[in-house]
Amino acid sequence: MMHYPGKHIRIGIVDNDALALGALQQVVRTYLPQSEVIWKETDGNRAVSLCSTPATTPDALIVDASLEGMTGSEVCRRIRANDAEIVLVGVTSFILARFHDAMLDGGAQCLLPKDKPQTICQAVIALCEGRIPRDARFSTESAAEAHRRLSKEQQVNPIRTVMLSPREEEVMTWIDLGKTSLWIAKRLNTSESTIKTYAQRIYTKLGVHTKVEAIIAWRNRRGE
After folding, report:
1. Is residue 217 part of a domain?
2. Is residue 131 part of a domain?
3. 58-62, 133-137, 152-156: lowest mean pLDDT where?
4. Residue-averaged pLDDT of the chain
């Protein structure tokens, strides 16, 4: 078993699967014994917030590409638009092609399979040292270049940076698919009035007044 005992690296992990979070933390402990997992999160919004607070900003963030609510690519996009330093390593249990383009477009520096723990740790070390491996799974765009691109995009299209909660993201996803408040309420095992309250909060955050306007803003926010 190979270890990478180099410099101390502060690492954050975001994955909506609690078991996967534990497994990824163990990977870091095993292969990067000098490093430290400073926090683990299942909530993408919370991870973005932690990465914008100096005391909790990690040197590297391991991001699950298939997060529920806010996607892994959106987590990366929001972080990279405001920070050129944090190393963003995307991981997934699915076929890489499913998330590769979206993750790298969102500022992740690579997308790797979760079942390759040594590869994940090698990537963390290499990227923290400023090296970009010549590998198709890695972006040819530097973190600084991605930051400039995404910060400019944020200025041009600020709606993309609006912070919706995971439940608001879920509700808006169903609204975009044409589902009624009653249908969404049954799906989420809650009341129709609660869904309508979520919808009003979403409209306020997106700066719109109607469902049609919300759908347009939502799609623009996602780059569709």
Report:
1. yes
2. yes
3. 152-156
4. 88
pLDDT the model gives residue 29: 92
∠ Cα 121 61 41 (to 5°) = 115
Residue 2 located in a structural domain = no
- Of 123, 156, 189, which closes a domain? 156
Tokens, residue 111: 């997308």
Read off the CATH number of the domain in which 51 is found: 3.40.50.2300
Q: Could you tell me which of 14, 165, 21, 20 has the C-alpha nearest to residue 103? A: 14
166 has a pLDDT exceeding 80: no
For residues 37-47, one letter each, b for 16 or more C-beta atoms within 10 angstroms of the residue's C-beta and e for the rest, the string is bbbbbbbbbbb
Same domain, yes or no: 129 and 174 = no
Residues 16, 42: one domain? yes
Instruction: State residue 223's pLDDT score.
Output: 61
Tens-digit pLDDT profile for residues 170-212 = 899 999 999 999 999 999 999 999 999 999 988 887 878 899 9
